[in-house]
Amino acid sequence: MKIIILLLISSFAYAQQCEPENFRIIFSNGELTTPKQAFTAMNELALNLGNSHADEGITYDLAYNYSDDAFKELLESSNQRLWYVNLARLVYNWKFEINLPELNQHVEKYQEAILQGQKVLVVAHSQGNFHTNLAQQMLNNRKPAIAMKSFGIFGIATPTSRVGSNGAYLTNHLDIITSVPSSLPANWTLRRIDSGKIVDQIGSIPAHSLSDTYLSPYYDIRPEIIKGIKQELSKLTDPPQVVKSGSITVTLTWNLDNKNDVDLHVLEPDKTHVYFENTTGSSGYLDVDNRQGFGPEHYYTDCDKLQAGEYLVGVKYYSDNIRPARPVTATITISAPGLTRTFTVELDKATGQTNSKFIKLAKVVIGRIGEPISGRLKYQIIPLIGK
């Protein structure tokens, strides 16, 4: 048995979400963006787009692409413009390593939202377009099948030759990204809002900045970006709601079918064991129990019954229609407000009812900030290894 945990850190969030909005807009950053800058960009998008589109609500999320090595190399470079062009060329030619576990986590985030009935639009800046294009290919090949007409991409300053399957994009005429071979051409002439004059003095690297140029109130491209994003939102179709949503959701899928059965297990804070023989807990429900293969199996909490404390999440290989049982790879995605963590588990042996124990993957801890009863909820997802 082998366990791969994506993003091995304990994480916190301070919000509560029960029913998801109809739209989820997710920002995918480029290689030269700190986490703080990425969150700022996501918030700027939210401020400009608002909390609804066509009378349907919008939630905002982040698919962060780490770039620590890129930052170190940039600081050591004597020619930052040449360095940036070379980096973009490496990414374009697939010679710059994309963090695959991180990308898998993004794909799981998109799948989780669509299974819950949300329409997903990823707004990708710079090299984030490479990640998002690849994520769309991976999502298109997922089992169970995903409603791909509910997933879209809007590109900003893209070094790619396409944006998703048929997505829109905006690149201004001064942007350094146009130096990347085979990148989509500039399709916007940048002008100042106050005078209407064409901009020609800010430099090719500053022209690439999302906050300082593309979303700046001083240039005319921001209204066009907002318009373009709204047009892409209008193209998305409602997916069928396969699973329900709650403050905590856990989704299990696996890579084999033909009556191959892997089971999801959740121990709630009061020790109620939620699984296929007890689908209703004190806090939540196992609303989907799949016994044919691929999944999903799914657990969600009821916001009106949410308990503070620890929710223990586990998985068990129950049975296989083939003898001997085939090895199976299970993927478990845990989501809480502002948090998504994905675990990949390789299971070698089906145990059926001969062994009631399950593999402990993680715990979701809910606490409160301030008052013990009325204080804000705090969520934390903690991976468990060998415990």
Strand and helix layout:
Elements: E1 2-5, E2 11-13, E3 23-28, H1 35-49, E4 52-53, E5 56-63, H2 68-76, H3 80-92, H4 100-115, E6 119-125, H5 128-140, E7 151-156, E8 168-170, H6 210-214, H7 221-235, E9 249-254, E10 261-267, E11 273-274, E12 284-288, E13 297-301, E14 309-319, E15 328-336, E16 339-347, E17 359-369, E18 376-383
Parallel strand pairs: 3-5, 3-6, 6-7, 7-8
Antiparallel strand pairs: 1-16, 2-18, 4-5, 9-13, 9-15, 10-11, 10-14, 12-13, 14-17, 15-16, 17-18
Describe the protein in words:
The chain has helices at 35-49, 68-76, 80-92, 100-115, 128-140, 210-214, 221-235; strands spanning 2-5, 11-13, 23-28, 52-53, 56-63, 119-125, 151-156, 168-170, 249-254, 261-267, 273-274, 284-288, 297-301, 309-319, 328-336, 339-347, 359-369, 376-383. It has 387 residues and is an alpha+beta fold. Strands 1-16-15-9-13-12 form a six-stranded antiparallel beta sheet, covered by helices on one side. The longest helix is centred in the first third of the chain and has 16 residues, at 100-115.
